[in-house]
């Protein structure tokens, strides 16, 4: 099979792109995400038609937040778009006249990294995506592990603190409340409010108040040596690394890939995650250690991965 | 291939048995577990020779506690026997003249249940063994998931309570400190000491002191309605079920199998585990639920599973 | 001194009452709580003038949520009304021409119970108020313990779960997030959403949805045997009793008094709190146990206590 | 009253000293702690007789680990010596012919610091003693707060981690498991085992193994910049400071005094404790902050405090 289209449905934008067999994007198109389920289907169809003009395209892969069923056809439940048992595959196929595969967005991103990014040379890979929340994907023996019902690798919602923070999923103490971009901002706000004398650089990058600290301030401040910003990254890494150690006990991959916006900071966040991972890895002197790698495809991983999954059929 | 031998190395006994293709045990032999690594190898060889007399045996599978490498040949580390990089496969092959496969004991038990026990009809199964500690095994797509380095499915040591109970592995807050036979006894002792008026039946089954409560007293007392015994099972189930919910988020199997000595109590422990599982399953109204099944092979699962893994080669 | 006035500033109502030396309320008046600090001062003055007509009143005691300074004059900080270093004593004295004492509302309620309610016969008493949040008051040797800066007995904000639930105070894991009326409702909602089959009575008392469960439904459902409602009270009691055990380790009073709206349910909530208290009381077989008593004055404790504190000068 | 004798009963030594009204020790005597309760009484009597020779002594104060009753006469329960309802006051009085007062050892030490050490100028003081375990004492309005039954200020056993580390008291998650000399050593051992590359100095001070690290190595290594040693102190301080913040919410003293062997390290441990205290102090921008002071009397605080309590009668 030659060219396929990958579609990445985000909270604000829907991106579509024509992708070749090497994972290169030949052409892309972006539209705003409509507020209704039907609008989203229309927007996907429009984007696919627009981007495919002039290309000989054979299939479409869609990455969507939420639970996707084991047939890769229906979104059972999506937290941000109002999808409940949405037959996305059928609806889009009817409009674009191409075979469609639907996949969880974090699974698609993991597949993209596995195939064309940081996963080169590994067959057993676990990816975590530290974005606003925490998503994940699992590759075992070169195959995406979807689970019996299609909803495996929901890493963000394993419980790491009993009776811990409330999560949007209705549970408490979920990993993504402690290891995600949102968590990083909370760490910085709490610390800056309690000890502003240690957050002068950080507070100076915004309006001077703890409550208006933003993610990009924290990275900048950390690079400039701000103690609260550095400590906030360390706290994030403490939780991220401890969770990876648990995943090593469960899956035993040869490599972890850490992606998502938070990981764009590179070693600022990767190095403390590696330290925390070694610290908490059970039996760490008796076993080979998985590598902890930075993702390489940035925000394109999901689109590229979805396109490649469509190619695989 | 016809008959194979399964060997189960326990803390006090080494059991060997001749197993046929249907998982039936034709003959068994037991010896005490010697205290030295070399002694254990000798004992295994003796048991294999003894039990194989008169049978046309083609291979040997050994289930051993600890980390077994990805070649299924060397025990990297065993907590109870003093094995460090023990080349068990080679040593036993030299003495018995048959091909040998070494496998983690909980993996072997999981495989046994998958093939000949509660796993019938399922291709994606996660097993937990609630014995003295907590072990696990994973079957994905009908294959045992060993991980890249052979040490996957070490469920007992994922962290469920940050800064929690010390574990023999050197870490803190490991799942097996909260969901295992040892945990059950601790729950009962603590509760009986604090509120003996609620533990009259339980205390009456032993010498009357909380510190000498044993596991079998707790089951008996629970069946007789002892509030502390019932509450102790409930506490165990609270942690076991919550952990299964996390495993569902990670692996998404079609069934969980709960084995080990604790699970011999049947619905006394299975029902509260199922309740806790549903309580903590993220998105439980939007997804198909895995079944939570009682193991069927009891203490023979490891031996039968090891024999079958040897047959598969 | 003869009659004094007690004022209780609540989130929705301000109540004033004339109280005699036996703690009896001779006359009361209620107004809505105005939205601005200045409006609240006016409303207090109006209520005091109104209720004092025809009575020979000698002083005014005001119970206010928030940190009250050690001179009992200034509210340093109030969470619900926008008070920051509000000189409440001076402002009210200027308008009503009577000596004024300001006290934290939970301290006032504790004093009321100590003097005229459940505290009879005890000199060392710790009170907790399980209302929307969790407040407290301490009497040591017959005197209210205010602390060096006036802000002692802020029980609701001791940390009982590291990395736990966010609290309005900016911290995490505060006791009032686990033991309060708000916590009770959260427990019921979470459990009813996860296992509606165990909440049929509870859901039937409202509109059938977990998210609209109210506190009064939970009490009614618990009395009718609803498993989720009973379990929700038990969870509340688990945290309340464990906290009382900690307070016993710290203060060692002869009695605890449990007040606030939640405690109106009497033994439905008091009995499980007592059990949990005994369960967690360190060294419980080697020491005398404090009693755990239900408050007797209901919602009037704060008003009566504030009036009595004004009398004491 | 002029001279009194203070007795400090430790796990290995019993120390007696003649103390004047200014808290100066005029003469001391030490003996080994006998293994039996009766032996301890004899040893106390011997030490008192020996040290009092040539001094006009009027009373004896004894500091003992454990629960001392409200009459300051009987040790209800001692964890290390086999005392159960031991009438220590009567037994010692009969042998030495002087009035005797028995006090909990941490209370005695707190009183010593309050009267003659770091407490100068404060009337409301909370002391914590970071020794092997964690003890405490409370002074309110210039008086020792003993509680209704004599067992107040058992700080070491408030629960700071639900389902946390086992404690010798039978409970779990007690503060002294996270903030004490024993905890410090555990932190260092765990970290050195997991990441020996960060503990080269620390490991070099002992025999090179993590399991044989001792407390004094950690201080020395921290001063030399060893990352694991510094991080271990920081972890201790994290828990100590968070606990002091809770005690501020409860007692609201004007000063905390931190004593015990761990505090001998001075600002190495005090500064991070102060930082953690400010970090966790609820409403820290709205309230006056208690000072966090280093104890001044070192290991003599208990003896001097016990002597002074005897003087007060």
From TrEMBL, chains A, B, C, D:
Q: Which GO terms describe its cellular component?
A: cytoplasm
Listed Pfam families? ROK
**SUPFAM superfamilies in the record:** Actin-like ATPase domain
Q: What's the EC number here? A: 2.7.1.2
Q: How does it assemble?
A: Homooligomer (possibly a homotetramer). Alternatively, it may form a heterotetramer of two glucokinase subunits with two ORF2 (AC P40182) proteins.
Superkingdom classification of source:
Bacteria
Which reaction is this enzyme known to catalyze?
Answer: D-glucose + ATP = D-glucose 6-phosphate + ADP + H(+)
Q: Which UniProt keywords apply?
A: ATP-binding, Cytoplasm, Glycolysis, Kinase, Nucleotide-binding, Repressor, Transferase
What name goes with this protein? Glucokinase
What Gene Ontology molecular-function terms does this entry list? Answer: ATP binding; glucokinase activity
Q: What InterPro entries has UniProt attached to this entry?
A: ATPase_NBD (IPR043129), ROK (IPR000600), ROK_cs (IPR049874), ROK_glcA (IPR004654)
BP GO terms, sorted: glycolytic process
Q: Which organism is it from?
A: Streptomyces himastatinicus ATCC 53653
